[in-house]
Amino acid sequence: MGRRVAQWRVRRNMTQQQFADRLGKSKSWVDKVERGVRRLERVSNLREIADALRIDVQVLLAERPAHPAPADAGVERIRAALARYHVEGAPRPPDLAQLRASLEHAKQSYRHARYPVLLALLPGLLDAVRVARPNRATDALLVPVYGLIALTLVKVDQGELAWLAADRGMAVALATEDPQVSAVATVPLCQALRCCGRNGAALRAAVVAAHRLVLSGSGAVVGLDGAAPRGAGARSLRGTLLLQAALAAADRTDHDSARKLVDQAAEVAEVGSYGGGGFGPAAVRAVRVLVEAARGDLPTATVRHERLLAGESWRWLPPEHRAGYLLDVARVYASTGEMFRAGRTLLEAEGTARSEVHDRPAARDLVAALMAGSTTAPAALTRLAATLGAT
């Protein structure tokens, strides 16, 4: 950036002293900027320099807007796959090992927020599993495939289509007459319903599924993170459902119910042995922060947030979970006018899982809002906004 400043200064026929006088800075300050010794960390400094050079900030940053729309083609392929109602059965028994391997790859892609990869992978995986039916083993695979499709569509703001995919998964799960498999399908269903603003339906679905899970008999949980012994897997699943219910209650401004549901999830987390999936004390604390923020108690939420990030269990959460939570916190800061803190938190989310920011329309909207409402945003946020075309 310093070299670009120097190049544009020379093009404007200004000496370092003349440029410094125009900025109200010292010649030494300009020299350090141009040599890269002094970094430009604030948007206000960038804008002052750009104005003095009579150029746009984006030119100074030398970033080409990416105008990303990687989701469009992938969403259409998923839509087409969901619209294929008649799928012929396979002439030979399915290679279940290969299907499970493909499903595991998709799960890992989701945990690391690789949404373009998922949008390209999931339509073919759905077709392959559906072709392998009818088969009890492939039914167990079909539920998490529909669930992953729904979760990915939520990330790219395709709520109604996500609801359709989640509903398909729920239909397959209910046909198994296994409350645990139904509970697995309920998690993405709740997220899809919340994405569509149907928080009441999401709350009821999560509470019912969690209750039925408690009453269910022995067996194995086959979920988005693979089979797990009933004890650990069922606890993890029940805790996740309670957290989904808490978030839905908070979205409905039913704050008392939200806090009680988080408390119930905390009791589940205290047992330990969660069976994977990202549930545990850190997940509970993250939702508690968002519930406190929804109540309007930002000081308490901020203290809890800082303690969460300082704790060792924070790193146990998958990158997608951490980055998604950080985006939610950034929105909270932005809604209260804390634009600088919102920008810093959003950049933390980008560093945690790049696709969570670069490939989500909601994240781009947040970047644009931060740029419009702040004069002290970090320079890195300005560069991000230029890259996303969100300025």
Task: Write up what this structure looks like.
There is one protein chain. The protein is an all-alpha fold and 391 residues long. The chain folds into 3 domains: 2-61, 434 Repressor (Amino-terminal Domain) (Orthogonal Bundle), CATH 1.10.260.40; 70-317, Tetratricopeptide repeat domain (Serine Threonine Protein Phosphatase 5, Tetratricopeptide repeat, Alpha Horseshoe), CATH 1.25.40; 318-391, no CATH class. It contains 21 helices and 2 strands. The protein has a two-stranded antiparallel sheet with strand order 1-2. Helix 1 packs across helix 3, helix 12 (199-215) runs antiparallel to helix 13 (230-251) and helix 17 runs antiparallel to helix 18. It is globular.
- By CATH, the topology of the largest domain is Serine Threonine Protein Phosphatase 5, Tetratricopeptide repeat
Q: What is the first-to-last residue Cα distance?
A: 19 Å
**What is the overall shape?**
globular
Number of helices: 21
The assigned CATH architecture of the largest domain is Alpha Horseshoe
Strand content: under 5%
Strand tally is 2
The CATH C-level class name of the largest domain: Mainly Alpha
Organism: Micromonospora sonchi
Pfam family, one: HTH_31
GO molecular function: DNA binding
Domain HTH cro/C1-type: 5-60
Structure, briefly:
The chain has 391 residues and is mostly helical. It has helices at 2-11, 16-23, 27-35, 43-53, 57-61, 70-82, 96-111, 115-132, 136-155, 159-175, 179-195, 199-215, 230-251, 255-271, 281-294, 298-310, 319-335, 339-352, 354-358, 361-373, 379-388; strands spanning 220-223, 226-229. It folds into 3 domains: 2-61, lambda repressor-like DNA-binding domains (434 Repressor (Amino-terminal Domain)); 70-317, Serine Threonine Protein Phosphatase 5, Tetratricopeptide repeat; 318-391, no CATH class.
